[in-house]
Here is the input.
Amino acid sequence: MGIAERREREKEALRTLIVEAARDIISESGLDALSMRSIAERIEYSPATIYLYFRDKEELLGEVIHAGFDRMGEYIEEELTVVGPGADAAVEHRSLGRAYARFALENTAYFRVMFELPTVPHVTDGEACTHKPERKAALLVDTIQRAIDAGLYQLEDAETGALIAWGLVHGLASLYVSGHFAPSVASPESFLNLVEKAMDTLGTGLVPRETLTPEVP
Amino acid sequence: MGIAERREREKEALRTLIVEAARDIISESGLDALSMRSIAERIEYSPATIYLYFRDKEELLGEVIHAGFDRMGEYIEEELTVVGPGADAAVEHRSLGRAYARFALENTAYFRVMFELPTVPHVTDGEACTHKPERKAALLVDTIQRAIDAGLYQLEDAETGALIAWGLVHGLASLYVSGHFAPSVASPESFLNLVEKAMDTLGTGLVPRETLTPEVP
DNA sequence: ACAATATTCTGAACGCCGTTTAGTGTCTAG
DNA sequence: CTAGACACTAAACGGCGTTCAGAATATTGT
Here is the structure.
C-alpha cells in the first residue's frame, strides 16, 4: 500500500518547503530577518511544527547552506557550458572563478550565510564528509592539476594552488558582499572586472619577467 | 575648576571600560557570548547604564571594531620593524600580508567581527571617512605604488593591485577563521606557510614565463 | 550646613528570539 | 467503530536588545 509512501512524500515535501522558505527569507531580507517564527508564518504553520522536521535552527541552516552549494554548482556548470567541453584547463579554471564571483554577486546574503557561519555541525556527525564546499574544491583541485599536467601552470602542488586561487576569488567576493570596498569598486560590473583582473594577475605574476633570475638547470 | 573635566574624564573612562569589556568577551568567548547583559555583568553596572554611553549595541560594536583596526595597525608596524626601515617596497608588501595573516590567526573571533558584520554605521555619519580599513588600505596602495615606481611590480594601477593583494590574503584568512579549510591546512603554521606561498605565487605568476607571448614593443 | 538642582544609575517592563511540553485534533488500522 | 498512531499547536520558559520612570548620588547656591 502506497499510504506510507504518501506520508513519507508529504513529510519530505514539508521539509523542503521549510528549507525553501528559509532560503527565500535570507535572499529577500537577509539573515537577521530569518527566525523560526518568520519561517513558520511564511509556510503557515506553527513555529513548533518546524521542530518536528529539524532538530534545531542550526540543523535547518545546515540544509539551507547545503542547498546553497548545490546552487553554486549550477553556476559553475553554466559557466563551464559557456566555454564548451573542449576548453583547456586554464580556461576552465577561469570559468570556475567567474562562476564563484557571479554567484556571490547575485546571491549576496546567501553567500554570506554559506561562508560566515559557525557552520559544519553535521560534518562531524560521523558519516562520510561528502558535504558542502569540499565537493567543489575537489573540482578546482582537479582542474588545476590538469593545468599543471598540460604545462599551463607551474606549481608543485595542485592542492596548494587550488587554495590560493580559491582564496583570491573568495577574498574579493567576501570583501565585496560585506561592503568593504570603496564606492569606486562597489558596482557589480567593476567587481566582476576586478575578479578577472585578479585572475590575470595571478596568472602572469606581479613581478616583471626580466627581473627574475633564471632557474639553475 | 577641574570638576567638570574630572567628570568628563570619568565618563570617558567608563566608555572605554565598556568597549574593552566587549572586546574581551569577544576574544574569550566569541561574538555569540556578547550581550548587553554580559557586558554589564562584567563591568558591574546595570545593562541600562551602557545606553548612557552608547546609542545602541551597533554603535558600541562599531567602536570595538575601530579598536580592532588600531590593533591590526600595531601588528603591521611590528612586522615592518622586523624588516627594517630600508627595505624595498616589495619586501614591505610582504610584511603587510604577513601582519594581516598573523592578526587573523591570533585574533580569530575579533577578525570575524571586524569583517563579517553589517558594519559601517558611522561612516555615513557625515564626518570625514577616516575610518577603519581604509586607513590601512591607503598604506597598502602606497606600498604597491612604490613597488611599481621602483620597477618591482608590473601594474598599471596601484589601487587595483592593492585590492587584488588584499583580496588574496583576506580570502585565505577569512576561509581559515571560518573553518573552511581541510584539516591538513588547518594548523596555524601551515596557514602562515600557505599565505607566504600565496604571495610568492602572486609575485611570480601561475603561468610559466616561456609560454608567455612577448609584448609588442 | 542645608535645600535645590543636576547627574548617574537601575528595576522593571516590552516585544522579540529559540526551544520545550502538554495536549489538541485527525487520519489509519484492526 | 474504536484504539492508537500521527501531525500539529497554544502556551510557556528563559534570554535577548531596548526603554523609561524613578531611586541614588553628586554638585551647586545660599
